[in-house]
Amino acid sequence: MMRMLPRPLDPLRSFKLKVSLVVGIVLVLASIVFWIGAGWQFRYTLLAALVVSVAATQFVAHGMTSPLREMTSAATSMARGDYSTRVRATSKDEVGELATAFNTMAGDLEAAEKYRRELIGNVSHELKTPIAALRAVLENVVDGVTDADPQTLAVALRQTERLGDLVNELLDLSRVEGGVLTIAPEEFAVRQFLEDATTAHRGRVSIVVSLDATTVVADRSRMTQVITNLVDNAVRHSPTTSSVIVRAHRIEDAFAFDVVDEGPGIDPADRHAVFDRFTRGGSTDGGTGLGLSIARWATELHGGTIEVLGSESGCHIRVAVPGH
């Protein structure tokens, strides 16, 4: 209820001016009361002046320090883990600016806490599946249910590799969000670069390089990360008999890499969110949900963009970095 009371001094931009105005109003009202009660006994005049002055002060000065009290209460809530409390920041003075800054800080802390909880939950979920599968394989071997033959060990190896990939992607995520991931641009041949980046899927990938795109200036290792993640994702979602096309060309003042597959595609409503961390666009094929996020961050480190383009069939993702 107190938060909804009027704050007549909020439009003023100086706390000192507010204090001076309150003092002035109190003096004027006290003088008026003394003038009106000139014929009264002094004690009654003094009492009336005090009552009027206190009432006027409470009305006029309401809101001058209430943001400070609200911030104290909100800070106490934050100490208990509740970051949802906000302060009424209608004042234009220094206290109002502090209240606005406090609300911004509270919002940032709430977002950080939400991200932390989601990250812990997502990482726990991602780690649980390969660990459970690896444990099951090893328990079967130890119990004599299955032999430690190459086929069984290959299953264990795949789960171990999946764990390793997830850990590496989480480390990349940590470095990116910590601001310690940098780029070292260099000029390199595009075709050889694409052949090296897609060597794990040789036979499934077709490389097309335009005549005006034989070389590019970029961080080779980071761009390898981008192309590898995009191609892995495209191959995973495409029919085994289909081919993934990786095309390099120039568009206006940028250098573009297109990765096109023949999979189910991405719904237009999900095309932006698919680059968020742990987003799989409805896929349940075992991906970590971090590959496209890392591809986006690595692209943005170059000052470029990554987006899902419209396609009649399959998925078409374009990475564009500033051309040189």
Q: Please, could you describe this protein's structure?
A:
- It is elongated and about 110 Å long.
- 52% of the residues lie in helices and 12% in strands.
- The chain is α+β, with helices and mostly antiparallel strands and 324 residues long.
- The protein has helices at residues 15-36, 42-60, 66-79, 94-142, 150-177, 190-197, 220-237, 291-301; strands at residues 186-189, 205-209, 215-218, 244-251, 254-260, 305-309, 316-322.
- Helix 3 packs parallel to helix 4 (94-142) and helix 6 crosses helix 7.
- The longest helix is centred in the middle third of the chain and has 49 residues, at 94-142.
- The two termini are 62 Å apart.
